[in-house]
Each structure stands twice: as structure tokens, then as C-alpha cells.
User: Which sequence fits this backbone?
């Protein structure tokens, strides 16, 4: 992936900004595999208890 393609993808991401999907779409901008992004979306994050 070229720097130009990354720049274009970032511009598109900013235009269609959504708080709920931003982090996942950011991963796709840099070429993360769809399977990895799907795994992140379905993972049940639980905060650590102190």
C-alpha cells in the first residue's frame, strides 16, 4: 500500500467519521486484514478490576 493510498483512505475516513466505528475503520486504512478487524469488533472487552 502506497502512502498516497493511505492518505486517500484517511481523508475518506475523516469525511465519514463515526465514533462507534472509527477505530475499526482506522485499522482498515492501514491494511489490517478484515478477519482481524472483525475479531476486534466482536471481542467483549472487560475492564480490569482494581
Assistant:
Amino acid at each position: 500500500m502506497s502512502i498516497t493510498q493511505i492518505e486517500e483512505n484517511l481523508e475518506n475516513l475523516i469525511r465519514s467519521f463515526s465514533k462507534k466505528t472509527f477505530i475499526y475503520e482506522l485499522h482498515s486504512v492501514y491494511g489490517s486484514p478484515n478477519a482481524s478487524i472483525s475479531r476486534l469488533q466482536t471481542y467483549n472487552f472487560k475492564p480490569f478490576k482494581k
Notes: The helical segments are 3-15, 22-29, 34-42. DSSP finds three helices and no strands in the chain. The longest helix spans residues 3-15. The CA atoms of residues 11 and 50 lie 40 Å apart.
